[in-house]
Amino acid sequence: MPAATSSLRERGKVLLVNPNQMKPPVAPIALDYLAHALRESRFEVDILDLSFESDTSHQIESYFARNSVLAVAVTLRNADDTFFVTQDFCITKYKEIVDRIKTQTSAPVILGGSGFSIMPQDILSYYDLDLGIWGEGEYSLPLLLNKIAANEDYKDVPGLIYRGQGELHANPAYYLDLSGVPAPDRNSVDNYRYFIEGAMGNIETKRGCPKDCIYCADPVVKGKRLRLRSPQSVADEIEALIDMGIDHLHLCDSEFNIPEQHAREICIEMIARGLGDKLMWYTYATPASFSQELAALLRKAGCAGINFGVDSGCDRMLRTLGRDFTVEDLIRTADACHKEGIISMYDLLLGGPGETRQSLRETIETMKRISPDRVGANLGLRVFPQTRLAQMVRREGPLDRNPNLCGNISGNDSLFAPIYYISSDLGPEAYEYLAQLIDSDQRFFFFGDTAGADKNYNYNDNTILVEAIKAGYRGAFWDILRRLGEGS
């Protein structure tokens, strides 16, 4: 028997589980990356992807009837859908799946993922589990499993959340240096099926976000220090996905053009390999570092559309939200995209601290004047723990007496279940007022009490999107909705 096979069997089998059933489906990139890291550490890996399963209990029971495992690792991608109108709390749905797993195996169940990392101790307590890893798992999970396999003390594993003496403890996270990491294998998850049913593949070019937006949990989940992949590694991974038949991608960076030089280098590498002629891709970006020259490179590299998280069209509100750009930057960015033929989406996050009817009107008028291809108007800021917005809310006193808060307020001081900030200065009919401002402007996506299904840009169980993808539409969800609205 080859030594590698023997070693692999000695270390045991690890089951990675994706419980996310949002539709359209999004490929669990974390499981692809984790599976690669575990195999590099000579573990045997199985994937139980429940995204496409109607009877999850049957699939779970069927798997454990045929397999025994060293451990089960479950990735929680979303805590909730962050929309005030729906308030879909994914954590409760995931719990049903985790509870079913617990009835089928005595192996430790380990939680992780971006949704988990937002509030890991609260989720671990809610699930009545003992182990989780917040932040990145490619280093910490193999280390933890090695210690479990060897029956060694694992309480020093970086990023570990563990129960000890009746309490939950959290170790500092460990963040990988991505600069010299080669492209990981992308063959553990059925990426092609996700492309066919979810319209895109996905990839990261970096991790971390140094920005200081008051509401954003990305720095909590991914760290504030930027860690950049090499352009060569990124291009290698893109080529692997193209070889699978995937010709539409989404770059999952918090904001692709931070730093701008890295974005340029990625584009230059893609252009040099001719990738811009083989695929269309989309990304998130900031107007703070977006030049005409970068727009030209993006277009040549195959970029079809950009989602800019602009939040507001009012300078006062941009400062309040912690953004580092101005309305003039929004104008310049839209102009650059128009000139290069790159479709742009401006995402608004309305109703934050200090929002008034005057600032709301100013924002909508600004969007109409700048005229990006589409504008997403979302009213209500999800208040996540460990953000500056959460600190502001707590300073304002008891949650149940705060006129700016909506949602699951009673008995939720930890902000575990969805709570939303909607400035009381907007009055009791804020949704109706926003709908009046938008009027019949077809450039706006607005998911609210007064908006119809055709304005719904919540990507959680969006039937219109699911049917469009079945009909052959590909690309970013917002761009599919744009093309549907234009009949193209």
Q: How would you describe this protein?
A:
There is one protein chain. The chain is 38% helix and 17% strand. The chain is α/β, with parallel strands linked by helices and 488 residues long. It has 2 domains: 3-170, Rossmann fold; 191-380 and 422-486, Alpha-Beta Horseshoe (pyruvate-formate lyase- activating enzyme), CATH 3.80.30.20. The protein has a 7-stranded mixed β-sheet with strand order 2-1-3-4-5-6-7, sandwiched between helices. Strands 8-11-12-13-14-15-19 form a 7-stranded parallel β-sheet, sandwiched between helices. The protein is globular and about 65 Å long. The N and C termini lie far apart (58 Å).
- Domain count: the total is 2
Number of strands: 19
- For the record, the CATH class of the largest domain is Alpha Beta
Residue share in helix: 25-40%
Helix and strand composition category:
alpha/beta
Name the beta content range: 15-25%
**Fourth-level CATH superfamily of the largest domain:** tm_1862 like domain
Largest sheet: number of strands, sense, barrel closure: 7 strands, mixed
> Uncertain runs with pLDDT below 50, 5 residues or more?
1-9, 450-454
Please work out how many helical segments DSSP would assign: 19
Task: Please state how the strands of the largest beta sheet are arranged side by side.
Answer: 2-1-3-4-5-6-7
Shape descriptor:
globular
Please, what is the average pLDDT? 93
As a whole number of angstroms, the C-alpha radius of gyration is 23 Å
N→C terminal distance? 58 Å
In the CATH hierarchy, the architecture of the largest domain is Alpha-Beta Horseshoe
CATH topology annotation of the largest domain? pyruvate-formate lyase- activating enzyme
